[in-house]
Amino acid sequence: MHSTLGPGLLESVYEVCLAHELHKRGFKVQRQVVVPIEYDGLTFDEGFRIDLLVEDSIIVELKTVDTLLPIHEAQVLTYLRLTHNRVGLLINFKVKLLKQGIKRLIL
């Protein structure tokens, strides 16, 4: 997909295409999954949105940035903590070779 589309498109383009590719391969994929926030005894759905949730267990956060920053990793780790999942992938599509833009995070 990355070799066909190239780097530097909008995250939303990569999101829909990656979801399509994973679905074609038989994976259950959900897009823009709401992660509710609990505060003061209340639950708010306005918290966060996971780009892709694969097989109800792997969080995939997509970026198109020059450089992945610690805040991007913190975002995935927060999603993992809030959802009680253990594995996340942070994928930056703004790289020449996609393997250079993939970071696996485990909680």
- Count up the domains: 1
Share of helical residues: 25-40%
Query: Biggest sheet, open or closed, and with what strands and sense?
Result: 5 strands, mixed
Mean pLDDT: 94
Portion of residues in beta strands equals 35-45%
By CATH, the architecture is named Alpha-Beta Complex
Describe this structure as you would to a colleague.
This protein is of the alpha+beta class and 107 residues long. It has one domain: Lambda Exonuclease, Chain A. The protein has 3 helices and 5 strands, in the order H-H-E-E-E-H-E-E. A 5-stranded mixed sheet has the order 1-2-3-4-5.
What descriptive keywords fit this protein?
alpha+beta, Lambda Exonuclease, Chain A, 107 residues, 5-stranded mixed β-sheet, 30% helix
In short:
With 107 residues, the protein is an alpha+beta fold.
